[in-house]
Amino acid sequence: MDNLNEAGKLSILVVDDDKEIVNAISIYLENEGYRVYKAYDGFQALDIITSHDIKLILIDIMMPRLDGLSAVVKIREQKNIPIIILSAKSEDSDKILGLSIGADDYVTKPFNPMELVARVKSQLRRYLTLGDVNGTRKANVLKSGGLCFDLDSRTVTVDGEPVKLTATEMKIVELLLRHPGRVFPAEEIYERVWQEPAYNAENTVMVHIRRIREKIEINPREPKYLKVVWGIGYKIEKI
Amino acid sequence: MDNLNEAGKLSILVVDDDKEIVNAISIYLENEGYRVYKAYDGFQALDIITSHDIKLILIDIMMPRLDGLSAVVKIREQKNIPIIILSAKSEDSDKILGLSIGADDYVTKPFNPMELVARVKSQLRRYLTLGDVNGTRKANVLKSGGLCFDLDSRTVTVDGEPVKLTATEMKIVELLLRHPGRVFPAEEIYERVWQEPAYNAENTVMVHIRRIREKIEINPREPKYLKVVWGIGYKIEKI
DNA sequence: CTTAAATTTAAGAAAATCTTAAGAAATTTA
DNA sequence: TAAATTTCTTAAGATTTTCTTAAATTTAAG
Question: Both A87 and A19 in a single domain?
């Protein structure tokens, strides 16, 4: 599988038996800076997703040979990437059918190109998190010893006991757990979690660290998980 | 009852008073590898399903002698297999009637053969799970504790007591129940339920959440089912 | 022992959610 | 078609939770 895509572009696969539609969609997506792959039936689609690093799929559900709904199911068996269904039908029952089968969104033809792009971005935003370079959502738990972070339910447990962290606290724990053993200066934690330049923000980070410890450590004064490295920063050990 | 069908093929019963339609459908289904039984009115249909191991029924609701809707009701009393209604009528009232009476899907004539096949496959996929050898479906309900959503009748009950939700409210509950434990940001709820990009829509979602809680929670201020995760979104617990 | 770094605490500020209500929109009924 | 009903959206204020700030305290390294 080629994981190297030109200039770091995200790859999108467009599947429809109508070549004109595929081309039209491709132009809009390429304009937005995506690399577009094209397929004209379900089998071609399956071929491409097994040989290329596709991040998102746009697929028509009414296609010859392997119909779209079946293809969606097969794709889901292989990869966990966002799937947006294209369809001429607009009835509610179809919407529900598509979504319950494992698609993430549903667009009816004729569609507004800008809306389509908006939905593509929305889906990619949802699936592509920083630490998740492959775009494939793996088993969604991060661990270090008894500390466990379930990314789907956004639940943190210590030795199986659920612990209630705030959103910011969770982001800090997530960052440290995604790079176990690595030491992060408070300044870097701030910049990565708050997504803005750190200016006199160390204290803020420290107070958060304190509160996280209060929740996940048995004795916050002798932390077992969230450790300090004097003069450098904080880390959670690789276990 | 013969449970042995040739070469392990799945048996489908097609019921319509128009023989041409029955034959046309049969060809498409046989092409897809199904064993097809034919009936030209409701009584014949009932005969066949009691003597053969039918996995799915396609039935017209406008038929002489025993009309289709009545047949559907009687079939449901006997067997719990997927039923797809065929009809020349496309009015909404019929759709609702057909589905509420226990049918699983609805196709209006004239129909696209590929679409019909797709729906047949979709229904079989939904009902024939590995552990479910008899072709009798699993209870089609989503649950979390005392909260229960019956997908067939689209009815919600709390501790057995029926609760009257609006269509939108039901879609929200369905989404959360289909992914128990997972936290959905208000924005994502909007996009998945309304099927359009969320723009300043969080408030709308919140008000709906509030009204759902009013209906399903004993004390809406301390929700037992529909919980908030501060800074992230809403969820219904996996129980 | 001194100093810089890290911890702890508490209170006010900020942000997110909740609640309510009124009017708009959609649906049903007459 | 109009009236009545139900459902949805919008907005604004109340409430709750979370975040930031700052100052006092403790800890580790040299």
Answer: yes
A150 lies in the same domain as A209: yes
Distance from CA of B95 to the nearest CA of A (A): 10
pLDDT in tens, A88-122: 654 444 444 444 455 667 776 667 676 688 778 77
- The answer to whether residue A80 neighbours chain B at the CB level (below 8 Å) is no
Which segments of chain A have a pLDDT < 50?
1-7, 90-100, 129-138
Nucleotide closest in space to A223 (CA vs C1')? C7
CB B122 within 8 A of CB B141: no
Check CB contact under 8 Å for B181 and A152. yes
Which residues constitute the domain of residue A202?
Answer: 141-236
Q: Do B230 and A100 touch (CB under 8 A)?
A: no
CATH (domain of B192): 1.10.10.10
Which residues in chain B have their CB less than 8 angstroms from residue A155's CB?
A: 181
**Does A77 share its domain with A177?**
no
pLDDT tens, B66-120? 556 666 666 655 566 788 888 765 444 444 344 444 566 777 666 777 778 888 8
Nearest residue (CA) to C1' of D9:
B204
Spatial neighbors of B192 by CB under 8 A, at least 6 apart, are A99, A105, B175, B184
pLDDT score of B52: 76
CB A206: neighbour CB atoms within 10 A? 14
The residue out of A93, A127, A161 marking a domain boundary is A127
Going by C-alpha positions, the residue among A14, A37, A8, A39 that lies closest to residue A116 is: A14
Q: Considering the domain boundaries, does residue A105 fall inside one? A: yes
Interface predicted TM-score of the whole assembly (ipTM), two decimals: 0.63
